[in-house]
Amino acid sequence: MRLHAIIIAPLAIIATLLAAPTAPQPDKSAAPQSPREAALEKLLAERESPVALDAAIANARKHGVSDQAILEARFLYHVDRHEDGALAAMLPELLKQRDVFKPEDSAIFAVNEDWLAIIEYVQALTALGKGDKDAFKQHITEAFWLSPRQGAAFAPHIERARLDDAMRTVKIDFATQLKPLAAGDAVSLEKLIAKKKALLFHFWSPLSRECEAGMPDFITTATALADKGIAVVSLLPEEPPQLLTDARAMLRPLGTKLPGAWLLDPKDHPFARTLRIQDLPAMVLVSTEGKILFNGDPSDHDFWNALHKIDALITRPKSTRDNKHE
After folding, report:
1. How confident is the model at residue 320, as a pLDDT?
2. 231 forms bridges with which residues in the sheet?
3. What are phi and psi of 7, to 5 degrees?
């Protein structure tokens, strides 16, 4: 999804707003923008860096953009960059502004309830960061009640909280032996993680367009992590047989020396079920004790934070998709 720059529009669905900006197509029939409208549009679209955001805020203030609109733009900036800590830091400002909301000063909210829902949402994130499950549930429920239309933005945090709770009781049995995607004998996870810092499960499928599109990036990541002492295991469902054929065909253009181990997730007791894998691709980082350190999307900042805790020298490789645009 992409954030379309908007000027005082009655948009209350955060799910539509939480993403990087897309330049709107010019409308030759429309009246020219005023300096204030142009400044607000640029502010709402800014995602480049904190420095760029500060410059956009200064320009917006110079042209009379309201404090309410600036606060909303900062909120969108941090949400789109998945900076939950920065959102939590905004809570005092949001609470201070809670009772003085004016629709005419807002850039994106048409009614008071949508604004109040945002404050409840940030309170929920703050509680989640503190590990206060009861307070998180209270605030996220109130956010839903105030603005059901923004539910698509709230739901992932509920799913994440439930998944984190479930993963606390999971322990991977490294004695498990798995068949290779190619021909050969089964291999134990214990052998793969021996003398390594951690083990990374990569769940994928040739049926997923996202897996196919992201495979070059995964290969780059897996190679870099292997160099840092992380055992990488790519898991594919053991059945149906056609899936295995399609998977081998998908990997063939990538060469014969793929990083890590490419194994089959056993159909009787699949790790995908134990780890509650619902979307692909997915990454699960496992400690040498078998505990789950991360479970989720490979683009999640927390994935790289978890890796950084294992080895401070681990950095995120540049995307191959970025290289295509240079």
Report:
1. 61
2. 199
3. -120, 105
Percent of the chain residues topping a pLDDT of 70: 88
Phi, psi of 26 (to 5 degrees): -65, 140
**Pairing status of strand 198-203 against strand 282-286:** antiparallel
Q: What is the pLDDT of residues 226-265, one digit of tens each?
A: 999 999 999 998 878 889 899 999 998 887 789 999 999 9
AA letter at 196: K
Query: Which is nearest to 237 in space by CA: 179, 190, 288?
Result: 179
Q: pTM of the entire structure?
A: 0.71
DSSP label of 312: T
Taking CA atoms, 105 is separated from 3, 53, 112, 148, in Å, by 20, 20, 12, 23
Residue carrying structure tokens 């970025």: 322
Burial (0-12, 13-18, 19+ Cβ within 10 Å), 225: buried
pLDDT of residue 152: 87
* DSSP 3-state of 264: strand
Nearest one of 65, 71, 107, 62 to 92, comparing CA atoms: 71
Low-confidence ranges of the chain (pLDDT < 70): 1-31, 320-326
206-217 pLDDT, tens digit each: 999 999 999 999
| Cβ atoms of residues 12 and 114 within 8 Å | yes
Q: Would you give the distance in Å from CA 300 to the centre of its chain?
A: 4
SS3 231: strand
Picking from 107, 76, 111, the residue whose alpha carbon sits closest to that of residue 8 is 107
The reply to whether omega before 148 is within 30° of 0 (cis) is no
Residue ranges per structural domain of the chain: 3-165, 177-324
Quote the CA–CA distance of 289 and 228 in Å, as a whole number: 18
Architecture of the CATH domain 177-324: 3-Layer(aba) Sandwich (3.40)
